[in-house]
Design goal:
Order of helices and strands: HEEEHEEH
Number of helices: 3
CATH architecture: 2-Layer Sandwich
Radius of gyration: 17 Å
Number of strands: 5
Distance between the termini: 33 Å
Bound molecules: adenosine monophosphate, zinc ion
CATH superfamily: HIT-like
């Protein structure tokens, strides 16, 4: 299988690895939103969040506080954004599940997604469609 992140896990492609245990690897993104932007990656290959086992997801989320604390204290940040691009339309480029940790400080200029209010009555219809789909 030709997967870049599997190759990083197997040391076939170099990366700046900042944390590793039996199930997780974390390395620096080569195109960071801020220096220290890191990717938390399960060692088992799964394409995205919907493809991952509960066990994989638990081990990924459990390690995020430890890694993000180290990034913030080591590099003097105040906060971080935590995100997953799930699927091509959401901006997922690498088809091996990964969580982004983007360290933040006041005034760094990054913008979050813009929002716009619902039209009158629209929010109830949207909620009904989602609830019917469970
Ligand atoms: P996504 O758009 O969520 O699939 O994010 C993929 C991320 O992987 C991007 O932010 C890239 O900058 C990053 N990336 C691509 N190749 C490498 C690499 N060889 N080492 C580290 N990060 C990478
Ligand atoms: Zn992979």
């Amino acid at each position: 299988m030709d997967c870049l992140f599997c190759k990083i896990i197997n040391r076939e492609v170099p990366a700046e690895i900042i944390y590793e245990d039996e199930s997780i690897i974390c390395f620096l993104d080569i195109n960071p939103s801020n220096p220290g932007h890191a990717l938390v990656v399960p060692k088992v290959h799964c394409e995205n969040l919907l493809d991952a086992s509960g066990e994989t997801l638990r081990s990924l989320i459990s390690i995020v506080p430890k890694i993000s604390r180290a990034i913030m204290s080591g590099l003097n940040y105040d906060a971080f954004n935590f995100s997953v691009n799930n699927g091509a339309a959401a901006g997922q480029i690498i088809s091996h599940l990964h969580f982004h940790i983007v360290p933040r400080r006041e005034g760094d200029g990054h913008k979050l997604f813009g929002g716009k209010p619902y039209e009158p009555g629209e929010i109830e219809q949207v909620a009904e469609k989602i609830k019917a789909a469970f």
